[in-house]
Amino acid sequence: MRGGNPFRPSFGTSPRVVAGRADLLDEFDIALDEGPGSPMRSILLSGARGMGKTVLLNELEERARVRGWHVLRLPEGPGLMSELERTVLPARLTEHDPTSQRRRITGGSISAVGSVSTDTSEAYPTTPSVATMLQRLAEIARSHGTGVLLTLDEVQAAPIEDVARLASAYQHLLRDESEIAFVGAGLPTGIAALLGQQGSTFLRRAERVDLAPLRREEVLDAAVRTVREAGRVISAEAGERLADVVHGYPYLLQLVGYQAWRAAGDDEVITLADVEATLPVVVDRMSRLVHTPALRQVPQGQLDYLRAMAQDDGPSSTGEVAARLGVSKQHGNVVRGRLIDRELIVPAGHGLVDMALPYLREHLRRG
Ligand SMILES: Nc1ncnc2c1ncn2[C@@H]1O[C@H](COP(=O)(O)OP(=O)(O)OP(=O)(O)O)[C@@H](O)[C@H]1O
Ligand SMILES: [Mg+2]
User: How much is the average pLDDT of 191-196?
Assistant: First the structure.
């Protein structure tokens, strides 16, 4: 029996078959088992849009869950700490704290777990109630032989004050050797900006994991398995072509797979022609959903540099790009560095740089 299209070309949606990432997942498993102090218990994932940060965050959460850990996905954006304080933690504690029933009857509210007044929190870097509630949850978890995993997606969107308060609560728990772990994920520039801020010390100590593109075999294997599990097959040459078009980029694996599946119509086999037919859509979607947002915040000087690079069909010589722009080599190097930090370009050997995102060149050439 054949089901519907098994590919999931949308952001934040976990794929049916997760390609690659096994090493990191295994390391995280080990860290959870190793106990407090294991460095891979604090991770900061960075990567370009569509590189699979949210999917990986989901997978890491799942690894913790199967061990019986409490997983707290922190709310994204503003209001992170207040939501944690008012809703998320009280709800968890009410559910899991064997003494919370009694406390509520005698003490009036869950904040009896030890908070001092919450409206002083603005004046101090720490939020005692969040720290205390987290500590309580970690104690409960420990008594069951598990722990607490905190996750935060879109780290760059979190207000710095909230991150600082979270950091101080987390650090407190680390010092107490609590069974606690943290995984944050965000765009490279946002993470860099955050790490530059005061109060983000624990983030600076976290393991930085920069998500790399998937390996070719990983793309091919995931595509073949996704298709097969949904009741079709993909021809060998179509699989190879798909791996070319995808360039190791997870979003494209889903997009190309989806379009090729669709192009095959009612046929049992996805052919080379079906994969080939996806190209216009691929370039167009990448432009709209990935490149346009990625370039939105980029200053003009850096855009000019990218456009000058786009004249080449492959890696560009930094000397030539500077010449095209009529700027000094030194100035060119500054701009190049900024674009590397943004993960829009990558070094490609001595004196060479290349586009970091597939089809970015085509996008820049279009306008
Ligand atoms: N390891 C993977 N294997 C297969 N598909 C993946 C993998 N990781 C991500 N994807 C797919 O890629 C797309 C983008 O993934 P995801 O939303 O995790 O990216 P992201 O890095 O969080 O992007 P953003 O910066 O926009 O939040 C989704 O369609 C998802 O299903
Ligand atoms: Mg995401």
Answer: 80
Which residues neighbour 226 within 8 Å (Cβ) at sequence distance 6 or greater?
Answer: 6, 7, 15, 16, 17, 257
- pLDDT tens-digit readout, 277-304: 999 999 999 999 999 999 998 999 999 9
Same domain as 176, residue 53: yes
53 CB within 6 A, ligand 1: yes
- Percent of the chain exceeding pLDDT 70 equals 91
Q: Ligand 1 centroid to 30 CA: how many Å?
A: 24
Q: How far is the C-alpha of 25 from the C-alpha of 18, rounded, in Å?
A: 11
CATH assignment at residue 74: 3.40.50.300
- Looking at the structure of the chain, the number of domains it has is 3
Which of 5, 7, 10, 11 has most ligand 1 atoms within 8 Å of CB, for mutation?
Answer: 11
Task: State which residues form the domain around 329.
Answer: 296-366
Ligand closest in space to the Cα of 250: 1
Q: Which of 145, 139, 138 is nearest to 71 (CA)?
A: 138
For residues 233 and 327, membership in a common domain is answered with no
- Number of Cβ atoms within 10 Å of the Cβ of 262: 15
CATH of the domain at 272: 1.10.8.60
